[in-house]
Amino acid sequence: MQSTLDKSNIHSEELEALLKEREEGNVDFLLVDVREDMEYKMGHIKGVDLLLPTSSFGQWAQKFAEENKDKTVIFTCRTGNRSGQVQHIFKQHGLDRMINHAGGIVSYRGEIEK
């Protein structure tokens, strides 16, 4: 399963498997939802660690990068577009362990919380 965390993009089936592996203590990563608060409240992937809206990226990006530079981080959003943009910016600044959830929550078939 660790090889999945070496990718730039993962799909929903892989994310669902990774969340189960994390519950069992086999992998460690941070799952960050970059949608807006209203979207998050309508439903989010069970296991999201942080909500960091893209609209306030400038306010949280630098501190987040400093605090998580050595961690594996998976970004998710509605379709994978915003999370991909966030991931790309961090990768441009040398944070190589940032992963995009391609397809986003609309393609996710695992457990959703409201």
UniProtKB/TrEMBL annotation:
Q: Which Pfam families match?
A: Rhodanese (PF00581)
Q: Give the InterPro entries listed for this entry.
A: GlpE_sulfurtransferase (IPR050229), Rhodanese-like_dom (IPR001763), Rhodanese-like_dom_sf (IPR036873)
| Signal peptide annotation | none
Record-linked PROSITE patterns: RHODANESE_3
Q: Which residues form the Rhodanese domain?
A: 25-113
Question: Which top-level group of life is the source organism from?
Answer: Bacteria
PANTHER family associated with the record: FAD-DEPENDENT OXIDOREDUCTASE, PYRIDINE NUCLEOTIDE-DISULPHIDE OXIDOREDUCTASE
Q: What is this protein called?
A: Rhodanese-like domain-containing protein
The top of its lineage is: Bacteria, Pseudomonadati, Campylobacterota, Epsilonproteobacteria, Campylobacterales
